[in-house]
TrEMBL record:
InterPro entries: Flavoprotein-like_sf, FMN_Rdtase-like_dom
GO molecular function terms listed in the Swiss-Prot or TrEMBL record: oxidoreductase activity
Protein name as annotated: Flavodoxin
UniProt xrefs under Pfam families: FMN_red
Domain NADPH-dependent FMN reductase-like residue range list: 1-148
Species per Swiss-Prot/TrEMBL record: Prauserella flavalba
Amino acid sequence: MRALALACSLKPSAERSSSQLIAEQVLGELRSHGVEGEVVRVVDHDIKPGVEADMGDGDEWPRLRERIAEADILLISTPTWVGHMSSVAQRVLERLDAELSETDDEGRPSMFGKVAVTAVVGNEDGAHKITADLYQALADTGFTIPAQGGTYWNNEAMNPTDYQDLDETPKAVASTNATLARNAAHLARLLRADQYPAG
């Protein structure tokens, strides 16, 4: 079993990122359930705007799309900006829209049978709204969301501390990460063993 985490930070890999940190924590929990994974910092890649599988002219989405196709579980991790997901996360959703017209040999959309989970961090409110938006877009694309498939951390209002600046992971977040991973791994195994019926 494999997982791919797309960290949708606005910062390149040379910089520390709360979105990267929580993604790594979730992958660590997944490993305890026999799921190997990796984090990709999306902003390090030239992902063109658009809703096609390949926008041409140096677009690096097709290579990233191959890695999504190889994974059983997709994690989208995003910071909160002005109450919304990052523009990088929004672009990922827009590019995933192309999967609605990509099908397997039996006519199912290409993401059927894959599990998606989410992680949201921010020193401002917005995690519930962002999680809801991610859930809807991922489900529309064909992914399956497990019970309690989203984890998040928001700081108290007007406090500039970031998730990566905490001395330790809050118990509630650690517990949610563990539940998310356990449920995602369980669901992914069920779907691998018994795919959705073809239409």
